[in-house]
């Protein structure tokens, strides 16, 4: 993680750094939360916190580590909130989530699904992700997590050992299927979109529809969201396939030259009754499809 002095850098330079690191931050947060979708929520919140803190931060000798520390703490806050809402962890359990333990050495590359990472305690999870997925050093990990070097080594050893155990177990069950109603609405949307019938697609929108063009902007209301479809109609590089991402209804976006190939990114869709209420488009955040639980619907 290279040095960088904040006073000598403009806001533009800091924004460029955020753009460069965003895919890495997402790889970390997705594995910490067990979801590419929740991971993006955490990244967005962490970036907002970083932008708010930047002006008053003073010299930042290691900006990459500083940003990962913000993302790490934001992910832990997210996990605490989710656990409390689920009611399945006590205060003592929550403390154990983030407290690493004894010294033991060891290193091997860990490759695991997002759901598998979620079965590790958070201290082990963060250490394994930072070193074995993102390639950071022991010192870097300590800087991000606030743990001592012995504690980082212990967390790595235990996390890797546990991942080896989990690798021998059967694969996680597939996400639940969509309801018949949701499947029908998704299919109708896909068919109209691929036919470039913009008016028919717009007719599906709820008055209070919201659009999140991830990493770009958010708008709300039929009039503003309608412009989104006009812009897509001008593009020639896409073909939509009905599918799910982590069990949620999604348009999987493939290269028009290879419509049967792997999706390049996805668009999450949610309805209220028979009206489209929420569109979350990852066109400018294609990193999110990495390791996502994606299912194409025939």
In words, what does this structure look like?
This protein is of the alpha+beta class. It has two domains: 6-167, Butyryl-CoA Dehydrogenase, subunit A, domain 3 (Up-down Bundle), CATH 1.20.140.160; 180-296, Nuclear Transport Factor 2, Chain: A, CATH 3.10.450. The chain contains eleven helices and seven strands. The chain has helices at residues 11-33, 36-54, 63-86, 91-97, 114-117, 122-133, 138-145, 149-167, 180-194, 198-202, 222-234, and strands at 205-213, 217-220, 238-245, 248-255, 265-272, 275-281, 294-296. A seven-stranded mixed β-sheet has the order 2-1-6-5-4-3-7. Strand 5 (265-272) and strand 6 form a beta hairpin. Helix 1 runs antiparallel to helix 2 and helix 1 crosses helix 6. The N and C termini lie far apart (45 Å).
**What class would the helix/strand composition place it in?**
alpha+beta
Summarize the main sheet. Answer: 7 strands, mixed
Helix content: 40-55%
What is CATH's topology name of the largest domain?
A: Butyryl-CoA Dehydrogenase, subunit A, domain 3
Tally of DSSP helical segments: 11
- CATH architecture classification of the largest domain: Up-down Bundle
Q: What is the CATH class name of the largest domain?
A: Mainly Alpha
* Count of beta strands: 7
Low-confidence stretches: 90-110
Strand order of the largest sheet: 2-1-6-5-4-3-7
Overall average residue pLDDT: 86
Shape: globular
- Write down the secondary-structure element order: HHHHHHHHHHEEHEEEEE
Radius of gyration: 21 Å
Number of domains: 2
* End-to-end distance: 45 Å
**Beta-strand percentage?**
15-25%
What oligomeric state do the depicted chains represent? Answer: single chain
| CATH homologous superfamily identity of the largest domain | PhyR, sigma-like (SL) domain
């Amino acid at each position: 993680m290279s040095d960088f002095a904040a006073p000598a850098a403009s806001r533009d330079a800091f924004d460029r750094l955020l753009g460069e690191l965003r895919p890495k931050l997402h790889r970390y947060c997705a594995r910490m939360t067990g979801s590419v979708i929740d991971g993006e929520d955490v990244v967005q919140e962490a970036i907002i916190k970083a932008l708010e803190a930047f002006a008053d931060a003073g010299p930042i000798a290691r900006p990459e580590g500083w940003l990962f520390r913000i993302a790490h703490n934001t992910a832990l806050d997210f996990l605490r909130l989710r656990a409390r809402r689920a009611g399945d962890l006590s205060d003592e359990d929550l403390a154990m989530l983030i407290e690493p333990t004894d010294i033991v050495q060891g290193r091997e590359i860990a490759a695991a699904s997002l759901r598998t990472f979620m079965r590790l305690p958070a201290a082990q999870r963060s250490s394994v992700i930072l070193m074995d997925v993102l390639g950071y050093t022991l010192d870097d990990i300590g800087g991000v997590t606030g743990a001592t070097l012995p504690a980082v080594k212990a967390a790595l050893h235990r996390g890797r050992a546990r991942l080896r155990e989990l690798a021998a177990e059967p694969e996680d069950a597939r996400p639940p299927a969509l309801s018949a109603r949701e499947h029908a609405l998704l299919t109708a949307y896909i068919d109209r979109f691929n036919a470039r019938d913009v008016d028919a697609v717009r007719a599906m929108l709820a008055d209070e529809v919201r659009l999140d063009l991830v990493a770009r902007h958010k708008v709300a209301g039929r009039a503003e969201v309608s412009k989104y479809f006009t812009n897509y109609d001008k593009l020639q590089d896409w073909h939509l396939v009905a599918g799910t991402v982590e069990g949620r209804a999604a348009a999987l976006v493939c290269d028009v030259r290879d419509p049967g190939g792997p999706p390049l990114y996805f668009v999450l869709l949610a309805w209220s009754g028979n009206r489209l209420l929420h569109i979350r488009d990852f066109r400018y955040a294609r990193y999110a499809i990495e390791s996502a639980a994606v299912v194409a619907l025939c």
